[in-house]
Amino acid sequence: MSCLTQAWNLHEPELRGWARHRLGNPTDADDLLQDIFLKALRQGEQFCSVQNARAWLFEVARNALADRLRVQRDTGALPDDLASPVEEEDTVDTLTACLPRVLSELSPDDREAITLCDLQGMGQADYAKAKGISLSAAKSRLQRARVRIRQQMTVACQVQIDGTGRVQDFVPRLPA
User: Fold this and answer.
1) Does domain 3-72 bear CATH number 1.10.1740?
2) Full-prediction pTM beyond 0.85?
3) Is residue 88's pLDDT more than 50?
4) DSSP character for 43?
């Protein structure tokens, strides 16, 4: 008998009870057990090197259950009194009107980092390579540029943020 078969025969009854208790449906529990067994089977001979087969099986079971519950979660429309007002979305969307002015007021290095990484979607590793700097230096440079653009937007566009950190209001400014 393989180590997987031995471990499965030893721990399957306990896993089945655990799954049935959490899912409340024997058929769903059987489906979950099948998924767990297939994941263990895919490990092949590596499963035999697992120090604690029971712990491994239960960890896989918890993860599989979480994935299953996440997928099965019921969704519905929010009640009207909880839906976000259109004005809030418009405020954040129109904040981009301030961006050209603020970008023009940043240093050339900050402007380049923000433009390439945040606006054009260049990866930080590619940015680091293009600039001839380490990835750590590129990340630091981009982080500092983000702090400065936020500060500049707050001043130049008079951005007001509410207690939850959302943009509440601002004054649109055209490039100087």
Assistant:
1) yes
2) no
3) no
4) T
